Structure formats: C-alpha cells, structure tokens
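Tokens in:
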C-alpha cells in the first residue's frame, strides 16, 4: 500500500509540479526569488481577499512560515544589511501600487455617479430659464407701479395677470430642476455612494445591519489594513529622518574607517533619496485620490 501511495505521489508531482506538492519548498531559502517578499516583510495582498470579488487567487510564490521565521531572525541579527532595506522598499512599493489601483477605481466610480452631459445641459438650461423668468417678473412689477401712478388701471391689471403666469411658470421650472437634481446621475433613485476605503457602492437607503456587514466584510477590512500599512510606512520614514546619524568608530581615524564611513554615508543618502521620492509619490497619490 505504501508503494502505491508513493507512485501516486510521484505521478501527481509530475502532473502538477513539485511546488504544488510542497517538495521544492524544502530546498528554498528566504532570499530565493520564488519566495514571496510581501509575505516575508508583512502581509501578501493575495491572502487578504480570498473569496471576495477582489480575490487575486493563490500567490504564485512560496508562503512558508519556516522561511519567514528565518528571514526575521536574519534581519534581527543584521538589520543594517542592504538586502533587508531592498526587500522592505519592494514590499512598500507593492502595497502602494495595490492601494493606488483601488483609488483609481474609486475615482472612476465617482465619475460614473456624476451627471451625464445631457443632464448637465438640461440643468444649465433650466437654471438659465428660471433666471430669465425672474428678470421678467421684476421688470413687470416695476411696470405695474408705473402704470398705477399714471392711472392706467386696465393695463396694470393685464400686467399683473402676466406676472402671475410667469410666477406659475417659474414654479414649474423650479420643480423640474429639483426633480432632475434628485434623480440624475447613475445613482438615480438608489442614491448610491462610493466607499472611500474599498471602492464598493453603498446606498444611503441601506439598513444599519447591511452597512455593518459591509464595514466588517473581508474586502473592506483588507483595504483598511493596506491603508494602515501605508500610514505606518510613512511614519517609519519620518522617524528615520529625525533620528541622529550613527557615529560609528569616530575615534579610529584610519583610512579604512573613513572609507567605511563614506560608504555608509552614501548608502544613507541613497536611502534618504528613495524615501523622499516615495513620499512625493504618496503626496501625489493623496492629492489626486478624489480628483
């Protein structure tokens, strides 16, 4: 029976590949390209949205707890190793790109809920017509006063009747404008709005229970976690900027020490420049989020 099971295992391995069977993971190290760096540094987005409409499917790279433990131990032992800074930068860029794509969908959803060009034109025309009627009413009122002063009663009565007709027409235009305002746009009678965290459509008519289900749902919580990550990334960079530079072996005075210090300074300068560039990207991202 054991031999049959071994044959079946080998057959499945040939059909599905060693990765799917968990065979190749035993030979991997945390620095291998086949290992998910998002998983090593924190959270992989593939794991946040399973069984939701944003399900990304299984991550094509390895998620092995043993490798994550070894990675964290290595980072704790040598925190200044540039490889860890490179992994972290890649992780932050991946999370930023994922959230930026969500914000792009949010902007598109907001645009879809706006009025159509035809609705905008109709609204503008109604507002213009109402303004013209208001001017006509004001002009007629002044004319009635003039006619009254001149004793021309019949003409004054006819003008008053015309003004009443204008007032009635104005009321109809205003009701039409209000109705157009209430029902125009893709939201229509449903009164849709867009969730600014995950991009889902919500209705103002939704019950408290339905809204609670949304805000406690896996997709909303997943994007909420990613946005919190971005905030923490930025806070960490601000702390690094405020931290005093390490003195190292300042009293050594040797050429090797000076060269090492120069290389360290260059590394810090390069890292600071990358941080500034990413900050500028975050600022552009925040300012254009709802445009």
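Residues out:
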């Amino acid at each position: 029976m054991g031999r049959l099971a071994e044959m079946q295992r080998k057959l499945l391995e040939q059909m599905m590949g060693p990765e799917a069977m968990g065979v190749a993971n035993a030979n991997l190290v945390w620095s291998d390209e086949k290992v998910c760096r998002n998983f090593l540094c924190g959270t992989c987005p593939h794991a946040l949205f399973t069984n939701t409409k944003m399900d990304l499917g299984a991550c094509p790279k390895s998620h092995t707890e043993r490798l994550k433990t070894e990675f964290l131990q290595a980072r704790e032992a040598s925190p200044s190793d540039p490889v860890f800074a490179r992994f972290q930068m890649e992780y932050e860029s991946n999370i930023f790109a994922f959230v930026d794509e969500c914000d792009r969908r949010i902007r598109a959803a907001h645009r879809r809920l706006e009025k159509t060009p035809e609705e905008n034109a109709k609204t503008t025309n109604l507002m213009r017509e109402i303004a013209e009627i208001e001017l006509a009413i004001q002009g007629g009122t002044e004319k009635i006063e003039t006619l009254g002063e001149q004793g021309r009663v019949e003409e004054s009565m006819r003008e008053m009747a015309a003004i009443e007709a204008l007032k009635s027409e104005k009321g109809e235009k205003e009701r039409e404008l209000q109705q157009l305002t209430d029902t125009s746009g893709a939201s229509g009678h449903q009164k849709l709005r867009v969730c600014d965290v995950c991009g889902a459509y919500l209705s103002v008519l939704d019950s408290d229970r339905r809204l609670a289900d949304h805000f406690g749902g896996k997709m909303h919580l997943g994007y909420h976690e990613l946005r919190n990550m971005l905030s923490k990334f930025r806070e960490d960079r601000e702390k690094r900027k405020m931290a005093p530079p390490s003195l190292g072996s300042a009293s050594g005075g040797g050429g090797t020490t000076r060269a090492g210090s120069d290389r360290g300074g260059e590394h810090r300068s390069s890292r600071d420049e990358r941080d500034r560039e990413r900050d500028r990207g975050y600022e552009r991202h925040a300012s254009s989020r709802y445009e």
